[in-house]
């Protein structure tokens, strides 16, 4: 059976349905299934057109559909139908002739665009090689769609490892306590528009909101920001945007504290 929260949602919708006293019961139930992300017509309930769908029948159909979805996710490396649809569109941009696989220049472009940081980080070169061997790119020089799904999944895991490694290194370098790190993460998230990186303008706005920054302090902040950009590029190679990730932000704050920027140094 499906999760209890799914049952609760269904029960809620069933109660709502009964209160609405819709005439066309089967179409209502089909719309409820659509609300759960299932595309199914009224024939799935297996009753005559004029008959109402019982609660037991509805729950049985839902249970079957959830089981099929879980099976589909397992077969597709954990991706659900909507994620599969989006990833298929991405894959097709590298397979414009719809031949079913990506190779040669398009494969190089795919890897460099999907793995921009991993492909440049020396620490993860062995892991990147292992990933490519795992999805059989190393031996064949081709990447089919299902191997592409595995590649994205493995790269997502490797990316999380890389972020954790960089954050742990930044914590050690700065000497911040866990409470400090959490407080600065809150500041970082407040400044960031995408929760992953911050621009200089976002950092400037964050500091300016607590201490007005004139030309002198703005120039000092900009120089410190550029120093962290340089260090990040030394660590990860060329980047498309001049932005800092959270580990870089921690180091930036530490440097500003050490120089008592805008009275930031702790008492």
UniProtKB/TrEMBL annotation:
Database matches in SUPFAM superfamilies? EF-hand
Q: What is this protein called?
A: Calmodulin
Q: What is the lineage of its organism?
A: Eukaryota, Sar, Alveolata, Dinophyceae, Suessiales
């Amino acid at each position: 059976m499906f999760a209890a929260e799914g049952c609760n949602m269904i029960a809620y919708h069933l109660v709502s349905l009964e209160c609405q006293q819709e005439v066309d019961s089967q179409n209502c139930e089909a719309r409820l299934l659509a609300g759960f992300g299932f595309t199914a017509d009224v024939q799935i309930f297996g009753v005559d057109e004029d008959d109402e769908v019982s609660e037991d029948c509805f729950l049985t159909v839902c249970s079957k559909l959830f089981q099929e979805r879980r099976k589909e996710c397992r077969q597709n490396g954990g991706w659900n139908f909507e994620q599969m649809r989006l990833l298929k569109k991405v894959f097709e941009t590298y397979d414009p002739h719809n031949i079913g696989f990506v190779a040669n220049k398009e494969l190089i472009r795919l890897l460099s665009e999907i793995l921009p940081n991993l492909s440049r980080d020396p620490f993860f070169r062995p892991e990147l090689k292992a990933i490519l061997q795992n999805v059989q790119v190393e031996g064949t020089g081709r990447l089919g769609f299902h191997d592409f799904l595995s590649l994205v999944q493995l790269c997502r895991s490797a990316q999380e490892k890389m972020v954790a490694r960089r954050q742990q290194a930044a914590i050690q370098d700065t000497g911040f306590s866990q409470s400090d790190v959490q407080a600065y993460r809150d500041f970082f998230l407040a400044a960031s528009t995408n929760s992953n990186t911050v621009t200089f303008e976002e950092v400037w706005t964050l500091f300016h909101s607590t201490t007005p920054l004139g030309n002198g302090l703005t120039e000092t902040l900009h120089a410190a920001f550029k120093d962290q950009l340089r260090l990040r590029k030394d660590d990860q190679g060329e980047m498309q945007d001049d932005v800092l990730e959270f580990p870089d932000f921690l180091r930036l704050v530490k440097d500003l504290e050490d120089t008592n920027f805008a009275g930031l140094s702790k008492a």
